[in-house]
Specification:
hydrolase, globular, single chain, TIM Barrel, YdjC-like, metal-binding, alpha/beta, carbohydrate metabolism, seven-stranded parallel beta sheet
């Protein structure tokens, strides 16, 4: 029976986002989430995870985005701009890296701090992934592998999927490197091309398309609340509430059952 992991990124983005993720787990088919430690609502919502012991929890490692790093700009100077914030996207990060302006030691220090912040709350970790999938970059993989080993995390995301071009290639490379390192990855990934728009109809299509030959599949999603004033600073044009509605849909749950899929977490990978 195929293991289906449905993972929500960006836990901690805002308080309403975190609570929407928990609602999708409690009342829907969401099985897993990834915590965005530098986000503003991390401190106020990380404690809520203890009330949901069956929810798989990973760290959504961040080196880019609208928020500052966990460590100070003085501690990780190569990761921040003049305002002490991360580069806004992977494109700016890549440009800085190509110019030799990203210090791998800064990367390791910052990502270690993010993992420690979750573990310090007593939250067991099932996996690692990353904001804008930077953990799959070949130059960053040695750091990710060391962090997983130190944190005793057994699984990482790999974006292996048909039709994703370079991202699928990176996903396959990640899966191969993970296997050599003794780490686990789902056999395939779905939802990348639907990022921010994984509404009920699209979710039903993804579930229908899961091949019976797959041992495990991750579907990535981004649920959120209908009203969320704190989210204004993230201009991502996501359909947050529609994704949350789809994840709590009885039609989606019934489709998973009829397809013979087994809901689970990264901790269930074998």
């Amino acid at each position: 029976m195929t293991l289906l992991i449905i993972n929500a990124d960006d836990y901690g983005l805002t308080e309403a986002t975190s609570r929407a993720i928990l609602d999708c787990h409690e009342h829907g088919v969401l099985t897993s989430t990834s915590v965005l430690v530098p986000a503003p609502a991390f401190a106020s919502t990380i404690g809520l995870l203890a009330e949901h012991p069956n929810l798989g929890v990973g760290v959504h490692l961040a080196l880019v985005g609208e928020d500052p790093p966990v460590l100070s700009a003085r501690e990780v100077p190569s990761l921040v701009d003049a305002q002490g914030r991360f580069h806004i996207s992977w494109k700016q990060f890549a440009a800085a890296a190509v110019r030799g302006r990203i210090d791998p030691a800064d990367v390791e220090k910052e990502l270690t701090a993010q993992i420690h912040a979750v573990q310090a709350e007593g939250v067991p970790l099932t996996h690692l992934d990353s904001h804008q999938h930077l953990h799959e970059w070949p130059t960053l993989w040695p750091v990710i592998q060391r962090l997983a080993n130190v944190a005793k995390v057994r699984a990482v995301r790999s974006t292996q999927a048909k039709g994703l071009g370079p991202m699928s290639v990176l996903g396959k490379l990640t899966a191969a490197r993970a296997k050599r390192a003794g780490l686990l990855t789902p056999q395939s990934f779905a939802g990348f091309s639907h990022s921010g728009s994984l509404t009920e109809p699209e979710l039903l299509k993804l579930i229908e398309a899961v091949p019976s030959s797959s041992a495990s599949v991750e579907i990535g999603c981004h649920p959120g609340a209908v009203q969320d004033p704190e989210r204004y600073r993230y201009d991502w044009s996501y359909h947050w509430a529609e994704e949350a509605s789809g994840l709590q849909s009885s039609a989606v749950r019934n489709r998973i059952t009829s397809a013979g899929l087994r809901l689970g977490t990264f901790g269930d990978l074998r």
